[in-house]
Write a structure and sequence with these properties.
The relative contact order is 0.11. A hairpin with a 4-residue loop joins strand 3 (about 360-365) and strand 4 (about 370-375). This protein has helices at about 1-10, 15, 20-50, 90-140, 145-205, 205-245, 245-255, 295-310, 330-340, 395-400, 425-430; strands at about 325-330, 345-350, 360-365, 370-375, 380, 415. Strands 1, 2, 3, 4, 5 and 6 form a six-stranded mixed β-sheet that branches. Helix 3 (about 20-50) crosses helix 6 and helix 4 (about 90-140) packs antiparallel against helix 5 (about 145-205). The protein is α/β, with parallel strands linked by helices. The chain has two domains: about 90-205; about 220-430, SHC Adaptor Protein (2-Layer Sandwich), CATH 3.30.505.
Length: about 425
């Protein structure tokens, strides 16, 4: 099942619904690893082609690699802006940006006013120079008179006074420009600050936006927690399996020759119905609505008969008869209906109607849980939960009668759910 998903890099949305949150997280990691592996293979093939064609210059950037920074906790290093102690708060950053923009705009306006004043001062200086020349000519005409000297002295004094006045005007003008620059800077800053406060007030008053943001942060936190929990769960269950040694011993023995159990008897040999023992009549289920196409249904039946029946799939631990918890190709809704009147801890194992594999449906105190079982190889294990491989479906069920499926420690397989009255939903698999 996992091999098929990674080969297609696609999973049916209806099949994805049957995955638990932990399985979804680990399936995402597996698909991401497969993408990186394919990318590296493509890069290596490209480099080999480049080496074989020495006349062509190798393409720049062909030596790309992927590298993850690892933190002190040996996990992928992640930095979130604003959480570090040296990061500035959002309000301080906004104030600095607003103040800088206000200063730049005020300096720009002051520069424009300065250019206008320089033009006015240049015109006044030209007029004053012309007036001085006229006074000098008049003084030369009456230089023989005594009063001419007094007039010249008075003219010089007037010119000096005029220059002093001009300098005083320039100083006062500069002081006014500086004051106007400061006032304009403060005004622009206050306008930006007021606009920012109005924006923040509107965002705070938008309760729906706040609620959405809160839910988004909570969802991110849950996903990070679930990913970490999945890793811890895998480590914990692996250590338990090593200590017990039962699963490791089965997997080791399974690598050699395995004694094939006999084929299960045909349903027509059963004559009575007993939900507790799993024995049922061979009558086909009537009125079952199949959600998948006929071709997919036929492919799954063919796969089960050719690959799974020789391995004894669906048989109990003795290998002589069908297990009471085994069911055929039934839908998610049908499995939940079968467990509707059963207590917490009840379960059944059914053949998936979407993909080549199995689904374990479990009745908990809060409702129903569905776990995908990977049957890609000649062993069986939950998809990404503990990744422990079992020689048969019966061994998987027996193992999880004592060991929980997830880290919560509550999913123990206690009570098998058999066939419904007057029906046998796996008859089409063993005909």
């Amino acid at each position: 099942m996992l091999k098929q998903i990674l080969a297609d890099m696609y999973i049916d949305p209806e099949l994805l619904v049957e995955l638990s949150e932990e399985q979804k997280q680990i399936l995402f990691f597996k698909m991401r690893e497969e993408q990186i592996r394919r990318w590296k293979e493509r890069e290596e093939k490209y480099e080999q082609n480049e080496k074989s064609q020495k006349s062509h210059k190798p393409k720049e950037g062909s030596q790309k690699t992927v590298h993850w920074n690892i933190g002190k906790d040996q996990e992928v290093w992640v930095w979130v802006m604003g959480e570090h102690s040296s990061d500035k708060p959002y309000d301080v950053i906004c104030d600095e940006i607003i103040g800088e923009r206000a200063r730049e705009q005020a300096e720009k306006e002051a520069e424009e006013r300065r250019k206008v004043q320089e033009e006015v001062f240049s015109k006044l200086s030209g007029a004053l120079s012309l007036h001085t020349q006229n006074e000098t000519v008049e003084a030369q005409n009456v230089e023989n008179k005594i009063t001419a000297k007094e007039e010249a002295t008075k003219t010089d004094q007037n010119i000096l006074n005029e220059e002093n006045k001009q300098e005083s005007v320039v100083l006062k003008t500069q002081e006014k420009e500086i004051q106007k620059l400061e006032e304009r800077t403060q005004e622009i800053y206050m306008n930006w600050k007021e606009a920012q406060e109005v924006k923040q007030k509107l965002e705070k008053e938008d309760s729906e936006w706040q609620e959405t943001l809160k839910k988004s942060k909570a969802a991110d936190e849950r996903r990070r927690s679930m990913a970490k929990q999945a890793r811890d769960d895998y480590k914990r269950l692996s250590m338990q399996a090593i200590e017990r040694g039962s699963v490791a011993e089965r997997a080791k023995n399974f690598g050699g020759e395995m004694k094939r159990p006999p084929l299960p008897p045909k349903p027509k040999q059963f004559s009575t119905v007993n939900n507790n023992s799993g024995i049922c009549r061979s009558e086909r289920r009537q009125g079952i609505r199949r959600l998948n196409s006929s071709s997919t249904h036929e492919n799954i039946i063919k796969w089960f008969k050719e690959e799974q029946l020789p391995l004894g799939a669906g048989l109990d631990s003795s290998g002589t008869c069908m297990a009471p918890w085994f069911h055929g190709i039934i839908s998610r809704l049908e499995s939940e209906n079968l467990l509707k009147n059963h207590v917490s801890g009840s379960f059944l194992l059914r053949v998936s109607e979407k993909i080549q594999g199995y689904v374990l449906t479990y009745r908990s105190e809060d409702g129903y849980m569905h776990f995908l079982i990977d049957a890609s190889a000649t062993s069986y294990g939950f998809l990404g939960v503990d990744q422990l491989q079992h020689a048969s479906l019966a061994d998987l069920v027996e193992y999880h009668k004592a060991e929980p499926i997830t880290s919560l420690g509550k999913e123990l397989l206690l009570y098998p759910c058999g066939q419904s009255k007057n029906s046998c939903d796996y008859s089409d698999l063993i005909d």
